[in-house]
Amino acid sequence: MKRTIKSVFNKKNKKKIICLTSYSYNFTKIIDDLVDVVLVGDSMGNVLYGMDTTRSVDDQIMVNHATAVKKGADKSLVFFDLPYNRDFSESTTVKRVLSIMKKTSCDGVKIEGNTELKDVIKYLSKKKVPVMAHLGLQPQKFRSSKKFKIYGKDKKDLDNIISDSLCLEKSGAVSILLEGMLTNIAKEVTKTLSIPTIGIGASEYCNGQILVSEDMLGIFRDNHPKFVKKYADLSKNIRVAVNKYSNEVNNNKFPNKKFRYD
Ligand code: KIV
């Protein structure tokens, strides 16, 4: 059965919300019935395009990938990441979100930012566009992923994130993604909010979890953050298969009778 915003985000504390990233039609088809939400993350900048920052992903790249992902999702909800833009004014942001929603038919949008987004979220909620806010470590704030800093080391961080998350909840966000933060901060935010939190590098206290699929499957080899558990080593499997293919072609074992047209 197709998941709905209500069936996924109204289950705070009843069942964990399972999320993963995808950027393609085929991969989405593989994971579709196993997850609640597929995020077309701007992490594609790093893991798919080899960019050093997610800031280089633009709206057109997002539209292309989100369209493909949405085609492969029969059951899960598809959210796209709003790409970085220098103009973060309310009117431009709303226009961009509505345009990408229209072009891709996604189920919702994730937006990095703090209380400056409150009117954007209010407006989008009225237009029935579900918004997942994104607090804590916000990759779009960094020019290089090598400079990422874990959130929560400053004394004021807890108070700030509690008031920001309450503000975004009041504005109508359906959920808040918490990235790269100290455990006590994620725990407090999750306890305080009525809407569910989705964590990445934010402890087991969140109401749901997300990982970048290429990280957890062992496909992305550039870096390996502490919070990533590798559930498979697909790089190794791919290399074994390609090596075998190469040997068989070299030794005239492939193709053979079975794989040819006579
Ligand atoms: O772009 C992305 O993949 C993200 C992660 C936090 C899941 O935003």
Give your account of this protein's structure.
The protein is an alpha/beta fold and 262 residues long. It folds into two domains: 227 residues, Phosphoenolpyruvate-binding domains (TIM Barrel), CATH 3.20.20.60; 30 residues, no CATH class. Helix content is 38%, strand content 15%. The chain contains ten helices and eight strands. The protein starts with a helix and ends in a 12-residue tail after the last helix. The structure holds 3-methyl-2-oxobutanoic acid.
Features:
binds 3-methyl-2-oxobutanoic acid, TIM Barrel, 262 residues, alpha/beta, 2 domains, 38% helix
How would you briefly describe this protein structure?
The protein has 262 residues and is α/β, with parallel strands linked by helices. It has two domains: 227 residues, Alpha-Beta Barrel (TIM Barrel); 30 residues, no CATH class. It is 38% helix and 15% strand.
